[in-house]
Design brief:
Number of helices: 4
Strand content: under 5%
Number of domains: 1
Radius of gyration: 13 Å
Shape: elongated
Largest sheet: none
Structural class: mainly alpha
Length: 63
């Protein structure tokens, strides 16, 4: 996978986050405290797991 493909994949995945009811609820509850929202997304959300995998592809290609 090229870096450009990984970036496009990340962009496609992030479209799911914009309509995520859990993310909207956490944003309303915590305001702009993204560390709490991102912590939930990274640890509990399957979409967050996909984002992490794609991010690792970018890092792997870069090193």
């Amino acid at each position: 996978m090229t870096r450009l493909q990984a970036v496009y994949a990340i962009s496609d995945i992030l479209q799911h986050c914009g309509v995520c009811p859990q993310r909207v609820e956490l944003n309303q509850k915590h305001g702009s405290t993204y560390s709490k929202i991102d912590g939930n997304c990274n640890k509990q959300c399957p979409v967050g797991g996909l984002l992490q995998l794609q991010g690792r592809e970018l890092v792997r290609d870069h090193t």
